[in-house]
Amino acid sequence: MNLRFTGRVWVFGDSLNTDAMYPAFAMKMDPPEAARQIFYEVRPGWTDEVSPGDIVVAGKNFGIGSSRPVAALFVELGVAGLVAEEFNSLFLRNAVNAGLPAMTLPHATSLFSDGDTGTFDLSDGSWRNDTSGVSGTVPTLPGFLLDIIASGGLLPRLVEQGYLPSDLADTLRSGAVAIRSAGSGA
Amino acid sequence: MGMTAIEKIMARKAGRQNVSAGETVVVEVDMTVLVDLQFAMMWYPPIRIHDPDKIAIVMDHAVPAPTIKDAEGGSHARKFAADFGIKRFFDVGNHGICHPVIADNGLARPGEVLACTDSHTCAAGAYNNAARGLGPAEIYSIMCTGTTWYQVAPTIRYELDGVKPDVVSGKDIFLYIANAYGDAPNFNLEYGGAGLHALPMHDRRTIATQGAEVSADFSTFEADEVLRDHLNSIGVADYVVAQPDPDAHYHTTRRIDLSTLEPYVARPGTVSRNGLPVSQLEHQKVDQAFIGSCANGQLEDLEIAADILRGRSVAQGVRLLVTPGTQAVYREAMRRGYLQDIADAGGVVTNSTCGACFGYHMGVVGPGEVCITASTRNFTGRMGSAGAEIFMASPATVAASAVTGYITDPRSVTK
């Protein structure tokens, strides 16, 4: 997962909660099917339209709610990054730990419209709306969090540190695959 | 400059003299709690872990297993506990929702750091502990390394004053606060003040638990004699409390006069700026009434429900579900006759689990239905169908509503 990502943006509103992205009924599904339920009620059909490399832009209080690993479902869909005016801190942590780039950008939902192309770089905080030409910078995350994202998430680092078997290294580079272990134990 | 309660714990556990809002700190974790979903949804057997004595496992979200996936998760948990000698293993039969299990078993100690995946981990803040939800990957990492990190947020101070009326519970206090002040993402909440001494532990636990519902980071209570007496009664000793300094810096301070409050209800969707006194709500029929969860499955919550239901009946066409917070609470409520009263009134008492609160099992709601709940969360679709409406209120209001069939101020049905 790269700290710099470019893609088509999808713009959502404020206070998108985890039940809207990873509802309880989806928790009984395997990740590929669960990922098809994201925004099932907020924006029905969105998972049929989104393509790998696309970017989700949201408003304030993005991800209020549960600890369930929503970020891993976005990874499953191929979403390249999350941008929000404000993140719930647990949701942000889950994104970092799944290796999914996340940038806090004030007024993001005014600066971007559905279908615009955006470029975001977590390493220097720069962003640009390639469609409108507007650009700017935001404060960067602490370096050790950028390292986790760049490593593909937290679990691959635990392999490097010898806490998990080395043969899991490649498997664990994707946060989505990390939750696919359900029931298999491997 | 002085520190808030949370800043003090962060400084202590990071080995620093001072910590202030805006900093990112790496801290030692005193207790890490794994729940069943971890083993069902994100589990790889580790090669080594930090310290088995600093780990607890609680089976709570999906017990007894409603799916094969959850049953396999249980097998993983049992094998892990056996392989690594995890002594604090709350398996089915000795289980409960993790937050009351944590509280009742002395795992949340004042001045210390507790880690758990679940978003309502902030519940342990009632014990002057630094606890918050961290997600399954972070918990896995802490299990291995013994450390985690926090971006220290600014703190909002709630200065409690006065004595609440008897009918008002921690739930009403929280719903009042959530309605009056709205969301607090990337803020800590700290509760204290002259009115704290008159607020029982079970009400503090409800309030601390619900900090997640306004998107707050930590919600922490000052330590006082009520907490010390409670900890003494469950055998917790040798802790060092974290009291805020008199010159601690707060983002803002809000005063709450508890004596002016009355039963509150939140309308469906969110508790944030979405509530009103029950006495002002229009006539609202209900199909299901639920009392349970980490917020309201306590013995005191069941006692309140039993007192209202005793000698009365659940209204025709209404389903009342009651889920004790832990099996220990279940057994004590059975000994005291509360479960008998609830069942005699026509209520259904379930085993202890997160169950209906998160719409996974044990009583999901269907399209077009209305639920009044004393649980944690009233998001659209939270308890089942996105076409259902979830109102949130105290156990007293839910029990009263179950009896009348519409959302009812408990003052109109109490003895």
Produce a short descriptive summary.
The complex is a heterodimer of chains A (186) and B (415). Chain A has 186 residues and is of the alpha/beta class. Helix content of chain A is 28%, strand content 17%.
Mean pLDDT score of chain A: 93
Query: What is the count of distinct domains of chain A?
Result: 1
Q: Name the CATH architecture of chain A.
A: Alpha-Beta Barrel
- What is the CA-based Rg of chain A, rounded? 16 Å
Distance between the termini of chain B: 52 Å
* Portion in strands of chain B: 15-25%
User: Which architecture of the largest domain in chain B would the CATH scheme give at its second level?
Assistant: 2-Layer Sandwich
CATH class of the largest domain in chain B: Alpha Beta
Total DSSP E strands of chain A: 7
Based on secondary structure, the structural category of chain A is alpha/beta
Largest contact between protein chains?
A-B, 50 and 54 residues
What is the radius of gyration of chain B? 20 Å
Strand order within the widest beta sheet of chain B: 13-12-18-17-14-15-16
* Largest β-sheet summary of chain A: 7 strands, mixed
Q: CA-to-CA gap between the ends of chain A?
A: 23 Å
Under CATH at level 1, the class of chain A stands as: Alpha Beta
The rough form of chain B would be described as: globular
Low-pLDDT parts of chain B are: none
Task: Classify the helix fraction of chain A into a percent range.
Answer: 25-40%
Tell me about this structure.
The complex is a heterodimer of chains A (186) and B (415). Chain A is α/β, with parallel strands linked by helices. Chain A has one domain: Aconitase, domain 4, CATH 3.20.19.10. Helix content of chain A is 28%, strand content 17%. Chain A has helices spanning 18-21, 31-35, 46-49, 70-77, 89-97, 108-111, 143-150, 154-160, 175-178; strands spanning 4-11, 55-58, 81-84, 102-104, 117-121, 126-129, 135-137. Chain A has a seven-stranded mixed β-sheet. In chain A, helix 5 links the parallel strand 3 (81-84) and strand 4. The longest helix of chain A has 9 residues, at 89-97. Chain A is globular and about 45 Å long. Chain A starts with a strand and ends in an 8-residue tail after the last helix. Chain B has 415 residues and is an alpha/beta fold. Chain B has two domains: 5-239 and 249-258, Aconitase, domain 3 (2-Layer Sandwich); 263-410, 2-Layer Sandwich (Aconitase, domain 3). Chain B is 29% helix and 19% strand. Chain B has helices at residues 5-14, 36-41, 68-84, 98-104, 136-145, 170-181, 201-209, 225-233, 293-296, 299-309, 327-335, 338-344, 395-404, and strands at 24-28, 31-35, 55-58, 88-90, 113-116, 130-133, 147-151, 155-161, 188-192, 219-221, 252-257, 264-266, 275-277, 288-291, 319-322, 348-349, 370-374, 389-393. Chain B has a seven-stranded mixed β-sheet, with helices on both faces. In chain B, strand 3, helix 3 and strand 4 form a beta-alpha-beta unit. In chain B, helix 6 packs parallel to helix 7. Chain B is globular, with a radius of gyration of 20 Å. The relative contact order of chain B is 0.14. The interface between A and B is large, with 50 and 54 residues.
